[in-house]
Each structure stands twice: as structure tokens, then as C-alpha cells.
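User: Here's a structure from my thesis project, written as C-alpha cells. My advisor, Dr. K., wants to see whether a designed sequence matches the one we expressed. Can you design one independently, without my sequence as a hint?
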């Protein structure tokens, strides 16, 4: 167990909020495993930064990563950049990026349970629990395989490929978001959230798929379960590709505020950061939403490039609104 007890206001050994990362790798590292560990209460609990040499084939398995915080600054349970081959398997990431009883360490949009930069390759995130994050349960900016996880009470559960305010992965990402469960939600202080999945910057002819997921019981009065977006203030926007050849199938949305949204401003049949091409949405059940807007297909919907088939829609708020401009 790695425990920053001197930063924990609930202990007799508490001294101050001053601190440092718990476990940090900056040198050349290959085939490293962290397993069966508890890492609790640091400014960042685990950081991987390709600085002095390449980091390859790094695995964190069956560990508990909790309560990272930093007053008035960035903080994450797990942060990684420049890693070739990363696996997160069967871990618990809980209440990272904020602390309810430390002044200046409240929830912000910048702090997350897990933050994976756009510079990673070979990402596999399987069988984890992501709970009670400051903002995102998981930011998978590099894409990858995201499957069999549980996302519990995060303001935004999962971001896949999407980047705001920093570089995006040039040429887009690919991978799968499959068989995950998204439960509950929340806001970031006074900022309304309640989003299940954000998707952006998907490369062409890559076979990217979102399937077999369940989104249920979001208590907040804002947000769609599934959101197709383009990034804002992206530093290398000319290298972003929009959303291409994405399949969304066999998902269930139940008792969420709204169902599925395609951002206004996306250009069907276009090119570049705001384009959307060959999207297929089929066999999904969007049921008992607490708002009538079960689907918003964007202000420039085009059935040639956005193909919807075999979906079922229902709203608990009245007649379901399926918005296809």
C-alpha cells in the first residue's frame, strides 16, 4: 500500500495538502507490472511520462487507485503520455481529482480518474471500475479497446478520441467501446454535466465500434448518453479528421436524460475536424428518457452519410422527439 497519510485530513498524521505524485515513471521502462496495490491520496497517484526514454508494455492490474487531489491545480488518479502498449485491467479508480473537505480541491473539469493523452498506442482498458471522478471517469484520447468496464457516478463517464484545448491525435483514432455499463452521473459543482460517452476524431476505414453498452439511471437533468462531437480550441485542428466509419449498434439507454446527439456544426460528407461520414446507428434501444429529446441527429442531418436503422425510441416525458433536421 502506498498511502499519503500526511495529506489525509481524516487521519491523526495529517500535516498539510502539500505533496507529490505517488508512483512516477519518467525513464526508459519495458514490460512493467503493477498488481495488487493500493495507491491513495497523492497529487497524482500514478504518472507515466516518456521523458528520459521510451515506456513500453506497461500494465496496472487488480489495484485500487483512490483520492488523488491537489488544491487549486491539476490532479488525476492515473495520467500517461507517450506510452506504447498500456493495459489497465480489473482496477478500481475512485474519487480522484478532488477532495470534498479540502479548500481549493473541489471538482473541476480538468481533473479525472484516468487521463490518457493522445500520444499513446496499444491501449487496452478492460474490467475496471471508474467511480466518482472530478470530471471524467476515463479520458481515452488515443482510442483503444475499452470493454467490460463499469462507470459509476462520473460527471462525464468516458471520452474516446475527443480532445478539447490541446493537441488531438493526428489522423484520428480507432478501437472499440464494447460491453461497458454506465450508471448514474453528476455535475461538476455548478457546471451541468451528466454525459455517458463522448466520441470524436475517428479515422476512416478503421472499424471503430460502440456496441453492447448499457447507459442507465442518470440523476442529472442534463446531457445525452452518447455524444458525437468535434473538439474545441484544438492546437492542431488541421490534423483532426471528424467522425468516419463509426458503427453504433446494440446499445441500451434507459432512464437517462436524453439519448444520442450529433453536434450541430458537423458536416455530413465533408472533410476535416467537423466532418461526419458513413455513420451507422442500428439496433439500439433508447428507452424511458426523462426528456422528450431521445435523439438529435444534428442541424444538417444527411441520410446518405448518417444511416439509422432498427432503433427503438421511447420517452417517459411524453412523445419521443427524434430530431433529424
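Assistant: Designed independently from the structure alone:
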Amino acid at each position: 500500500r502506498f498511502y499519503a497519510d500526511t495529506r489525509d485530513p481524516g487521519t491523526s498524521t495529517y500535516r498539510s495538502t502539500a505533496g507529490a505524485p505517488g508512483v512516477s515513471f519518467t525513464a526508459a521502462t519495458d514490460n512493467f507490472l503493477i498488481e495488487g496495490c493500493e495507491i491513495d491520496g497523492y497529487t497524482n497517484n500514478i504518472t507515466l511520462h516518456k521523458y528520459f526514454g521510451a515506456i513500453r508494455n506497461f500494465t496496472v492490474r487488480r489495484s485500487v487507485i483512490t483520492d488523488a487531489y491537489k488544491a487549486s491545480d491539476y490532479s488525476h488518479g492515473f495520467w500517461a503520455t507517450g506510452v506504447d502498449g498500456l493495459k489497465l485491467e480489473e482496477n478500481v479508480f475512485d474519487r480522484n481529482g478532488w477532495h470534498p473537505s479540502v479548500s481549493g480541491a473541489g471538482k473541476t473539469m480538468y481533473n479525472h480518474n484516468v487521463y490518457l493523452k493522445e500520444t499513446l498506442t496499444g491501449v487496452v482498458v478492460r474490467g475496471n471500475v471508474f467511480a466518482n471522478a472530478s470530471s471524467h471517469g476515463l479520458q481515452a484520447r488515443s482510442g483503444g479497446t475499452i470493454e467490460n468496464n463499469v462507470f459509476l457516478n462520473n460527471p462525464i463517464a468516458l471520452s474516446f478520441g475527443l480532445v478539447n484545448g490541446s493537441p488531438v491525435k493526428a489522423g484520428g483514432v480507432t478501437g472499440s467501446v464494447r460491453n461497458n455499463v454506465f450508471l448514474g452521473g453528476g455535475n461538476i459543482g455548478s457546471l451541468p454535466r451528466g454525459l455517458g460517452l463522448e466520441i470524436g476524431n475517428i479515422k476512416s476505414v478503421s472499424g471503430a465500434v460502440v456496441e453492447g453498452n448499457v447507459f442507465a439511471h442518470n440523476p442529472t437533468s442534463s446531457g445525452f448518453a452518447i455524444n458525437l462531437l468535434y473538439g474545441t480550441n484544438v492546437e492542431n485542428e488541421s490534423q483532426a479528421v471528424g467522425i468516419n466509419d463509426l458503427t453504433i449498434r446494440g446499445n441500451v439507454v434507459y432512464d437517462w436524460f436524453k439519448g444520442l446527439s450529433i453536434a450541430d456544426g458537423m458536416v455530413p460528407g465533408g472533410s476535416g475536424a467537423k466532418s461526419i461520414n458513413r455513420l451507422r446507428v442500428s439496433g439500439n434501444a433508447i428507452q424511458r428518457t426523462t426528456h422528450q429529446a431521445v435523439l438529435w441527429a444534428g442541424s444538417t442531418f444527411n441520410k446518405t452519410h448518417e444511416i439509422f436503422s432498427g432503433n427503438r425510441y421511447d420517452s417517459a416525458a411524453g412523445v419521443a422527439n427524434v430530431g433529424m433536421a
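When you compare it with your expressed construct, this may help: The chain is about 0% helix and 45% strand.
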